[in-house]
Every structure is written in C-alpha cells, then in structure tokens.
Design goal:
Blueprint (H helix, E strand, L loop, with lengths): L4 E6 L6 H11 L4 E3 L18 H6 L2 E2 L12 H15 L5 E5 L3 H8 L10 H14 L2 H10 L1 H6 L5 H14 L17 E8 L2 H18 L1 H8 L14 H7 L5 H24 L4 E5 L4 H12 L1
Parallel strand pairs: 1-4, 1-5, 2-3, 2-4, 5-6
C-alpha cells in the first residue's frame, strides 16, 4: 500500500460507530481520530457517549477528552490539529480511522474548510451580548434576513453557528453562503467513507435506550456538576441543556429525559440529512459484520 488512506466512519448517533471503529483499528493495526465535537471535552463524558475506558484501551484514540469546556475550540482549530496529527501518524501507519457524527468536523479534515476574511472581533462580542440579553430568536431572524440561503442549511438552534454566520455577514457586507464551496487544498491521503444506518424506528429505539442507560450511569449527577457553567457554548448540548431545565425547576425529571430523547432523535435526523448528501459514502446496515466491512475496505484499497 503506497497511498495513505483515511477511513471515515459516519452516521447518526447511537448507531454503533465507536464499536466498528475499534474493530477496524484492530484489524488494520492502526489508530483512531475522533471527529465528535462534544467528546473533545473532558468534563463531558456520560452525556456525549464518549468511549469507555475499556474501549479507549482497545485501540489508540486521539481527540477524546483533550480539551476543557473552558477553552475556545473551533472547527478550524480541529482541522489544523487533526491535519498535523494525521501527518505524524501516517509515518507509522498507512491507514487511519476517523470516526464521528459531527458532519462539519468530518468535512473539515477530509476536504478543508471554506476560507473567510478576518472581521472586527467587536462584532462577535456585540452578537454574544445580544444573545445573552435577548436570546437566540432575534439573531436567527437577522440571519434569515441577511442570508436566507445559509439559514435554511444550518442547525439554526445552534447559537455558535448563527453568531458565526452573522459575524461574517455584518463584517463583510456579503452573505456567509457566498464564501462557501470554494476550491480546497488537496489532502495527502485518500478517503474511504463508511456510513452506518438502520430503519428510522430502530435508530430511534437505540437512541431511547441509550438515554435510559446514560441516566442509569449518572448523567443527572454529571449535569449537576456542570450546572454553574451552563452558559458555556460547549454545554449548549443535547443531554445537558434539558437537565439544566430540570435543575432550574422548569420541567420535571421525566419531562427532561423525554426532551433529551426527542432532541437526540431530531439531531440524528439532521445527521442523516447531512451525510446522505455525500454521494461518496458507502452505506452499510448497522448489523453488518465488521469482517464484511473490513473485506470491502481491503477490496477498495487493492
């Protein structure tokens, strides 16, 4: 094998990506890079379904619990660090595994991010202040007015994405979407993308059961420990924000848990919508034996 290969494993949450990544890492005697934007944070373990100690010991992992929620860490930071890490790891291995359900983070490593001009940092400060005072709705309406094309594409309930897009619109006088899909720098590896999927009812059932397991494992206690920092962007995350609402007395615990399940199902639906746009992904049912996928990868490489 003269070419370096990055095997990316994608799909909706709770589909079994972590388990497959470990099977592949063992089979190819290689290492795993995570592209799950919430598993980066060491304070968030149960609610992000981060790999267990046993799973982490089964194969070398990178980008798991390497940051604190108190640190600013963007997709651009991840792209730079992940590229540097792959360059280093490709000196030891000809094939690496990338796993995660955060589509933008996967894309940043496989293709590169769009290039945006620098804008006055005061704009972001002002937008953050508006968000703190007035909430997200006015910002969403402003983005919808300035860039309706991008507004339709993004998760408009994600304050970080909305503020970032508005920052570019206001700082450049151009729409955020006008900077997208420019030619990218070639990557020094070939990618084979493996997608895991299942019928929607099975995905939803797996999500519901996983939330129950998280609660049994102590998700509420984890959320209680993070409650004082609940305004941090990293904690504006499904599984935590619903329990913060319970801790504030706005819902009872049963309602909070049901909200986690509902919002995780919505998140899974958005993940599938994102990944299904990529025609290069080879889709497998989540019950497919790992050996069948290993054989498929070997056939693609050879």
């Amino acid at each position: 094998m003269n070419t370096n290969y990055l095997i990316s494993i994608v799909g909706p949450t709770a589909i079994g990506k972590t388990a497959l990544s470990i099977e592949l890492a063992k089979a190819f005697d290689t290492e795993i890079l995570s592209a799950d934007s919430r598993q980066f944070y060491k304070e968030m373990s149960i609610g992000t379904a981060a790999p267990s100690k046993k799973e982490l010991a089964a194969a070398p992992h990178h980008f798991i619990h390497h940051k604190s929620i108190l640190e600013d860490y963007s997709v651009g930071d991840f792209e730079k660090e992940a590229l540097a890490t792959t360059e280093e790891l490709f000196r030891k291995h000809k094939l690496l595994i990338l796993v995660g359900g955060s589509g933008l983070y996967v894309k940043s490593l496989l293709e590169g991010l769009d290039d945006f001009p620098e804008v006055d940092p005061k704009i972001r400060m002002e937008l953050n202040e508006q968000f703190a005072e007035l909430g997200l709705e006015p910002l969403k309406e402003q983005l919808k007015s300035l860039d309706p094309v991008y507004y339709e594409k993004i998760d408009s309930d994600n304050p970080h994405r909305v503020i970032r897009a508005l920052e570019i619109c206001l700082g450049t006088g151009k729409s955020f979407s006008s900077f997208l899909d420019q030619p990218k720098t070639q990557r020094p590896f070939k990618n084979i993308s493996i997608g895991l999927t299942a019928p929607r009812e099975e995905i939803y059932d797996r999500i519901n059961r996983r939330v129950d397991i998280m609660m049994d494992e102590g998700l509420l206690e984890e959320a209680e420990g993070l409650y004082s920092k609940r305004n941090l962007n990293a904690l504006n995350t499904v599984g935590y924000k619903e329990l913060f609402a319970f801790l504030e007395g706005r819902v009872n615990l049963e309602e909070g848990v049901e909200e986690i399940k509902k919002n995780t199902r919505r998140f899974a639906k958005r993940q599938l919508t994102w990944f299904r746009k990529d025609k290069n992904i080879h889709w497998f049912d989540y019950k497919t034996p790992a050996q069948e996928i290993i054989d498929f990868i070997n056939a693609k490489i050879s």
